[in-house]
Design brief:
CATH topology: MetI-like fold
Structural class: mainly alpha
CATH architecture: Orthogonal Bundle
Largest sheet: none
Number of helices: 10
Distance between the termini: 35 Å
Radius of gyration: 20 Å
Strand content: under 5%
CATH superfamily: MetI-like
Helix content: over 70%
């Protein structure tokens, strides 16, 4: 359940983050509005914002995906926004505008595809952070309901048996550590592989 929640959070964050970032970077009339809203969300600590949203939405898989998706969407949006500003200055974008390429095709073929490498790297990190945040919310009792097994929920229920059966907490904690560490290593490896400056070094 923890991996399912993490994958849904990543999907939510990528979809809305890319949409907001490329729209703000390409359409000057919406740039200030979208980015100031993203700045407001990023001003709050991630776990505090997630706790506040879960207090509003209530417990459940959909609600935790929505809450953590809102928390991590601004990170993707800021990266996509910066990449869109850089890509927008290239000559092939001006040529596409001159021949009348549609806005949707411009977004998908010229901006999103050219920004795909950094977004994939960021997605691996958000996957790790979302699993850790979801486990924290489950451990605090405000995440997924207890009838669904999650690593954070198992660790929370094992607190009462810590002195007699410490493995109840040890194994979920170890699973969280291994998964988040693996995802961070994958992100670093993908970043190094996709960076042209490091490609000859690998």
């Amino acid at each position: 359940m923890s991996l399912l929640a993490g994958s849904l959070i990543v999907t939510f964050s990528l979809f809305f983050g890319i949409l907001i970032g490329v729209t703000a970077g390409y359409l000057r009339c919406l740039e200030s509005l979208f980015m100031r809203v993203m700045d407001i969300f990023m001003a709050f600590p991630s776990i505090m914002l997630a706790l506040a949203l879960m207090a509003i939405f209530g417990r459940g898989l959909f609600n935790i995906v929505l809450a953590l998706g809102i928390v991590y969407t601004p990170r993707v949006a800021r990266i996509m926004y910066g990449l869109t500003l850089a890509i927008r200055e290239n000559n092939y974008v001006e040529a596409a505008q001159a021949i009348g390429i549609g806005r949707w095709r411009m977004f998908t073929h010229y901006f999103i595809l050219n920004a795909l490498s950094p977004i994939i790297v960021q997605a691996s990190f958000i996957f790790a952070f979302s699993i850790l945040s979801a486990a924290s919310l489950d451990f605090l009792g405000v995440g997924i309901p207890p009838e669904f097994p999650t690593w954070g929920g198992i660790a929370s229920e094992g607190r009462d048996y810590l002195t007699r059966a410490p493995w109840i907490i040890a194994f979920p904690g170890l699973a969280i550590v291994l998964v988040t560490l693996s995802l961070n290593l994958v992100g670093d490896t993908v970043r190094d592989a996709l960076d042209p400056r490091l490609r000859n070094v690998l």
